From TrEMBL:
Transmembrane segments: none annotated. It comes from Pseudomonas neustonica. InterPro entries: Isochorismatase-like_dom (IPR000868), Isochorismatase-like_hydrls (IPR050272), Isochorismatase-like_sf (IPR036380). One of its GO terms (molecular function) is hydrolase activity. Residues 5-147 form the Isochorismatase-like domain. CDD domains: nicotinamidase_related. Keywords: Hydrolase. PANTHER family: ISOCHORISMATASE HYDROLASE, PEROXYUREIDOACRYLATE/UREIDOACRYLATE AMIDOHYDROLASE-RELATED. This is Cysteine hydrolase. It comes from the Bacteria.
Length: 183
């Protein structure tokens, strides 16, 4: 029987509407994440919290020891849940995430969090490259508008493109409701 682990990526205060880098849809994504985390806890699924922290206390985002770098209260870890502090986009890079997954006997992974096109993307692709089957809950993830070469792409399109890429070649992508109903 496969053992699932839930990875919650960077649902930190700096991404909230009053934070330094507000994400489109972050409140709805966090509400869905809270449901998934509660369900995981009720079922004994290990929840791995990933928190980005900059080395400098005056960094523009996720500054060391700042309230912005803290995990949002409604999805905060409880005693005994692993918290992986990362300094790079990929939650596996220079962290003990892989060792934590192995230590807990995790065979497959569910990923939720922020930002869809950055840290969620990097974690999903790395996990798949390591051989983990991955499921992403699309409505428990959030991102922001992106600009390139004078063209602004709305967050909803950035998110949809990322989820489409995942579904095309990396992992299953489903809604929170479908995930909770399937268990």
């Amino acid at each position: 029987m496969k053992k699932t682990g839930l990875i919650v990526i960077d649902l930190q205060n700096d991404y909230l509407p009053d934070g330094k880098l507000p994400l489109s849809g972050i409140e709805a994504a966090t509400a869905n994440a809270a449901k998934v985390i509660a369900d995981a806890r009720a079922k004994g699924v290990t929840v791995f919290h990933v928190r980005h922290e900059s080395l400098s206390s005056d960094a523009p985002l996720f500054a060391a020891d700042s309230s912005g770098a803290q995990i949002q209260t409604r999805v905060a870890p409880i005693e005994g849940e692993p918290v992986i502090v990362k300094r790079h986009i990929n939650a596996f890079r220079e962290t003990d995430l892989k060792q934590q997954l192995d230590q807990h006997g995790i065979d497959d992974i569910v990923v939720i969090g922020a930002m869809s096109h950055m840290c969620v993307d990097a974690c999903v692709r790395a996990a798949v490259d390591m051989g983990y089957p991955v499921t992403v809950l699309h409505d428990a993830c959030a991102t922001l508008d992106l600009e390139f070469n004078g063209i602004t792409t709305p967050a909803a399109q950035v998110h949809a493109a990322m989820m489409a890429a995942f579904e095309f070649g990396y992992c299953d992508v489903i809604s929170t409701q479908a995930y909770l109903a399937a268990e």
